[in-house]
Specification:
Elements (H helix, E strand, L loop, with lengths): L5 E2 L10 H16 L22 H18 L2 E14 L1 E8 L13 H14 L5 E7 L3 E8 L2 H10 L11 H12 L6 E8 L10 H10 L2 E8 L4 E8 L5 E7 L4 H11 L3 E4 L2 H14 L3 E12 L2 H18 L8
Parallel strand pairs: 3-4, 3-6, 6-7, 7-10
Antiparallel strand pairs: 1-2, 2-11, 4-5, 8-9
Helix pairs in contact: 1-2, 2-9, 3-4, 3-8, 5-6, 6-7
Length: 332
C-alpha cells in the first residue's frame, strides 16, 4: 500500500508516540476499574462468557483508527515527474570531408575514409540538439546535406559518401568556401565548420586563405584536422587493368601550416590524427569544446493518497461503535 508513496508532512509521524502512551493509560485505568471479590465457591454461577475478555479489542480499534488518521494528515502522495528540454544555445555545424583518392590510404583501419565516417557518425549521434550538414570535396566540392536537425538524414548521407563521386584532387579552399556558403545565412548563436583533409591544396579556383576570410566575415569558427600517419603510408598509386587501385608506400604530405592558419584566423583549433584512436579523441574534444546549452524544466504532479487512510480510520471507529453498542453493550 505504501510502495512509491512519499509523505508531504513526515514530521507528523511523531504523533505516533501518543499510541504507546494511550495504551499505557488504558492499562492503568482498566486495572483501577477492575474489582475483585473473594468467595468460597463458584458452583452456583453459570459459565462466564468470553466476550468480556475481548473488550480490549474496542480500544485497539481506536488506536488503529488514530494511527490511520495520523498517516492521513501526514499526506501520503505519489509523485510524477515530467521533463521538458529547451535548447538555449543552438549550434549549426558543417562537416567538410575530403574524398580524394588519398583518403583510401590504409594507415588508418580499414582506410582513412571509412575510419572517418565511423567516427563522424558517432559525433553526429552525440549532437542531438544541433543542426548538422555535410560537404564533400576533392578536386571540386558540393553540399551532400544542408544543415538539418534530422540526424537520420545526415547519417544516411554520411554512409553514401564514397571516393569517385568527384574529380580527384584536394581543393581545400573549395571545400571550406562551400561550407561557409551553407552557414552564412544561419541564425544560430554558434556556427562551426569541421574541415578534414589528408593532403595539400592543389585544385579549385578559391584559395583557402580567401575562404578563411569569408568564414571570419560571417563569424564561423573552423576546426581543421590533418589525417594521416607520420612518414609513409600504404596508398593508391595507380590503377590496375580492372579499374581498381594498386597500392604502394607513399610519403604523407599534409599542409599543416595552412590548416593551422585557417583554424587560428577563424578562432578554431588545428588537430593532427595519425591513427584511429587519435581521430576519435579529436572528435571527442571538439564535442566537448562546442557544448550546446540545454535548459531542462521539470514538472511535478502529485496525487494525494490520504483518502484511503481516512476511510480505514472511519471504518474502524464505526466498527468499534457498533460492537460497543451491540455485542459488548452488557459488559461496558
Amino acid at each position: 500500500m505504501l510502495e512509491g508513496i512519499e509523505f508531504a508532512n513526515p514530521e507528523l509521524f511523531w504523533l505516533l508516540l501518543l499510541l504507546p502512551l494511550a495504551l499505557l493509560w488504558y492499562l492503568l485505568k482498566r486495572k483501577q476499574e477492575t474489582a475483585s471479590l473473594k468467595i468460597s465457591s463458584i458452583k452456583g454461577f453459570s459459565t462466564p462468557s468470553f466476550l468480556p475478555k475481548l473488550k480490549p479489542v474496542l480500544f485497539l480499534f481506536r488506536l488503529l483508527a488514530l494511527a490511520a488518521i495520523i498517516t492521513a494528515i501526514a499526506r501520503p502522495q505519489t509523485e510524477d515527474i515530467s521533463t521538458r528540454r529547451k535548447t538555449t544555445k543552438g549550434i549549426d555545424i558543417v562537416m567538410a570531408i575530403d574524398v580524394s583518392s588519398s583518403m583510401l590510404a590504409r594507415d588508418l583501419k580499414p582506410n582513412r575514409l571509412t575510419a572517418l565516417k565511423e567516427v563522424a557518425g558517432d559525433f553526429i549521434k552525440d549532437r542531438p540538439n544541433d543542426r548538422i550538414g555535410l560537404v564533400a570535396y576533392a578536386g571540386e566540392s558540393y553540399t551532400k546535406t544542408p544543415i538539418t536537425s534530422d540526424k537520420s538524414i545526415v547519417l544516411r548521407a554520411l554512409k553514401e559518401i564514397t571516393y569517385g563521386q568527384l574529380n580527384d584532387g584536394t581543393a581545400i579552399g573549395m571545400g571550406l568556401a562551400t561550407s561557409v556558403n551553407r552557414l552564412k545565412e544561419s541564425k544560430a548563436i554558434s556556427k562551426v565548420i569541421i574541415l578534414l583533409t589528408d593532403g595539400v591544396n592543389n585544385s579549385g579556383f578559391i584559395e583557402p586563405q580567401t575562404a578563411a576570410d569569408l568564414a571570419v566575415e560571417f563569424g564561423i569558427k573552423t576546426y581543421t584536422i590533418g589525417l594521416g600517419t607520420n612518414g609513409n603510408a600504404l596508398s593508391p598509386i595507380a590503377y590496375k587493368a580492372d579499374g581498381t587501385f594498386r597500392y604502394g608506400m607513399r610519403q604523407v604530405e599534409i599542409d599543416e601550416k595552412l590548416l593551422e592558419e585557417i583554424a587560428e584566423v577563424t578562432g578554431g583549433k588545428y588537430f593532427r590524427a595519425t591513427n584511429n584512436k587519435k581521430l576519435e579523441a579529436i572528435y571527442d574534444e571538439i564535442n566537448k569544446l562546442e557544448k550546446t546549452e540545454v535548459e531542462e524544466f521539470k514538472y511535478y504532479r502529485y496525487e494525494e493518497k490520504y483518502r484511503i487512510w481516512v476511510f480505514i480510520a472511519g471504518a474502524l471507529l464505526l466498527l468499534e461503535w457498533i460492537l460497543r453498542n451491540t455485542l459488548f453493550r452488557s459488559f461496558i
